[in-house]
């Protein structure tokens, strides 16, 4: 079955960096777009970034553009989110996502940015 397992979250000071990873299994990873979403306490889940199957196209939320970079390694079935210049408002659970008829989500990894 489909599994998306995130890692790399943690506590970081404002201005710092983190790199999230999402290891995927149970489907042909290289054929699908992948994405990252985040959800802060009391807020709606929001789109962060996505990348197409061929790595030729990426998209970002305005709030992270220029600070976050999404990438993927199809040989490792892994998608990454490099997060630089982190801000306290980036604090959230970050979830890996892909869609094939249904939405599939990982369990999430907590990112906490202290001011």
Concise synopsis of the structure shown:
With 115 residues, the chain is mostly beta strands. It is built from no helices and eleven strands. It is globular, with a radius of gyration of 13 Å.
Write structural notes for this entry.
With 115 residues, this protein is mainly beta. The chain has no helices and eleven strands. The strands form two sheets. Strands 2, 4, 5, 6, 9, 10 and 11 form a seven-stranded mixed beta sheet that branches. A four-stranded antiparallel beta sheet has the order 1-3-8-7, with no helix packed on it. A hairpin with a 6-residue loop joins strand 4 (34-39) and strand 5 (46-51).
Topology, please?
Layout (H helix, E strand, L loop, with lengths): L2 E5 L2 E4 L4 E8 L8 E6 L6 E6 L6 E3 L7 E6 L4 E6 L8 E9 L1 E4 L3 E6 L1
Parallel strand pairs: 2-11
Antiparallel strand pairs: 1-3, 3-8, 4-5, 4-9, 5-6, 7-8, 9-10, 9-11
